[in-house]
TrEMBL record:
Keyword Nuclease: no
Gene name per UniProt: Stkld1_1
Species per Swiss-Prot/TrEMBL record: Nesospiza acunhae
InterPro entries: ARM-like (IPR011989), ARM-type_fold (IPR016024)
Top EC class of this enzyme: transferase
GO MF entry, a single one: ATP binding
Keywords, comma-separated and alphabetical: ATP-binding, Kinase, Nucleotide-binding, Serine/threonine-protein kinase, Transferase
The enzyme's E.C. designation: 2.7.11.1
Protein's recorded name: non-specific serine/threonine protein kinase
Keyword Ribonucleoprotein: no
Domain of life (superkingdom): Eukaryota
Catalytic activity: L-seryl-[protein] + ATP = O-phospho-L-seryl-[protein] + ADP + H(+); L-threonyl-[protein] + ATP = O-phospho-L-threonyl-[protein] + ADP + H(+)
Amino acid sequence: EFMQASGDVEEVQAEGIQYLASFVEDKTAFPYLLTCTEVITLAMKVHTDSLDLQVEGCTLLLEIVSQALKQGVMMALDESVASCLLHTVRKHSENEEFLSMLCTLLMMFSASEVVAENLRKVGIIPDLLSILRSFLHNDKICFSCCAVLWSLAVSEDNTDQAVLASALPVTSAVLQEHLQNGVVAESACSALWALALQGCLADSDYEPTAALLLDALRMNPERARLVQNGCLALASLVRLSETAALAILLNSKGSGTELIKEEYHLHSHEPVVVEALCLLMNEMVQYDEVMLNMRSQKMEKLLSEIKLQFPFS
């Protein structure tokens, strides 16, 4: 109430945020801290010129959201709070260190479908893409922004087709830049999968995107989640175009079918990964030419192995 009554006084907001932060370690205070997110984000919006207040506000929000996620509590931020966060993003769009923190916060918030939807409604996608273009070298920013993109793109009520389509080259650039960084590559593969699900690719995109996803699998063969998301992304591409299926078979760095076999043997005890591999193969055999090639590669033998390994799945 004290902060709300003096919203335009920076010192009051700064001291209020610092005082609230003193309760972070007190578990009994957590339910009350949850109710403070709106007043914190509003303070950040009103006093955007004060970087110290922005950093302290963002740090406190990160603490609150971290605790919420640990306790399985979903944050339900309304559109006005999402708008405040977007305002802060725009005001500090060149401050790499602060943006890194802010993008982490957005990623954590976007774990909630309601919050993701509100962020999408206030139009945050172009800002995320702009941040990625500016800080392509920053692995932390790339990881967070791709994760937020994934959350926003998988929304069922998605009317941002044109905006999402513009995300493809940037997301591909992130994956290309961070192929050897498994954490970032995993996040970028998820974002590409979401874009493929939304039909955001043009005919000319299928082959290079498939090749890039195969590169990610080759560079990070033991990362189960990356392999799973990469295969699901490839399956979505193949569902849309035979070109993608042929690009997997005839990849210049080695046959994609051999890669599928290798990934199966690495992850044969992880059902979600094997399921993603099967989904990819199922999409590939929808095309006669591709199926003939897969038969010549003895993929039926692999499928029999999988059937024996998972008889009840």
